[in-house]
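Researcher: Here's a chain I'd like modeled. Treat it as a single chain, no partners, no ligands.
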Amino acid sequence: MAGTIIEGKYKNGCKFRASERKGTSTKQLHSGYHYGRTRREAQDKLNAWIRAGGFDALAAAARDKSLPEPLQTVGEYVKNWYAVHAKARYAPTTAETNSHRLPYILDDAKLAGTPLGELKKADVRAWLARLDTTENNKAKLLQLLGQALRQAVDDEMIASNPADILDKPKKSRSEIEAFTPDETRKIIDYANGRECAALVRVLLDAGLRQSEAFGLQWKCVDFAVGSIRIERTVVSLEGGRRGELRETTKTDHSRRTIRLAPKTLAALQALKANSKSEFVFVPQNGSAHHPHWFRGIFATYWSAILEGAGVDHKGAHTTRHTCATELLRAGAYLTAVSKRLGHSSPNVTLATYSSVIPSDDAKLVEMTAALF
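Model: Modeled as a single isolated chain. Structure tokens:
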């Protein structure tokens, strides 16, 4: 292991910060910081930076003037910042997504052409006003620009971050869409006796993210206890055309053990009897070329299930919302549902599903009457 890892409270829910320094003076040449939600993730990002050339790459870039200089423009700075620093810090899916967001910054002539040291908060607000996109996307673009400019502040190139504005675009939460009880029953009835039975039941029962279901291995299924362990994921890359196994989960809280219903365990046992893979769920055409499920091929597979069940199309993530919705409506504790879903905090669960939690005013009156 190279570098130093420090545990603490960092941005974006990350708990670990990895860094490596060169030299002994207070003006050391260093890599910057590489954040991770787990110690392994932080280490992997630092290792990726080192494999990309580490200090030698920084020194060469400085000689070639490819690293940002105080007099260069915002566009030049952000482009070089992303190439030198950001790709080693982000998870593959996040890096891919952010690469598609960069043009919103680089292609805006007024913003990108402004000298870095002259950028003001008013310029950032004007850029946001010019953007022809959703408020959600504006919020994410402002976050990306802010991350780049925070590096400039840390490198003492600018005194403050112009993207740190009070009137930030507000992220709106879309209405949660779950399957109705009738739709859920139709899906389960169609799946029973078919190869998809275990997948359908696990998604609905455990409320797994698709990436978690695809990363589930038989060694993480405990039939004696009746549980599964979520320890790794398969993420979709290249616009959903390729899957990649990762030995990490979305957050530390996503690494969890989930007890399953008897019918779900029975479906898993039936699937295991004919399985030749270490993974629980594999594509029907599983091969060296397509060893994992991923968005491109799973979307077709999921659509066929809904069509066979006679249910209008909804994304597979709807099963996760259905699991949470039905548990909360049945009176399950919010904290228990949050742990089952692998949310980073019960606050996330509450913010997402508050509209489906029963108010129970009449029941509260009965309780207070009995107490007081």
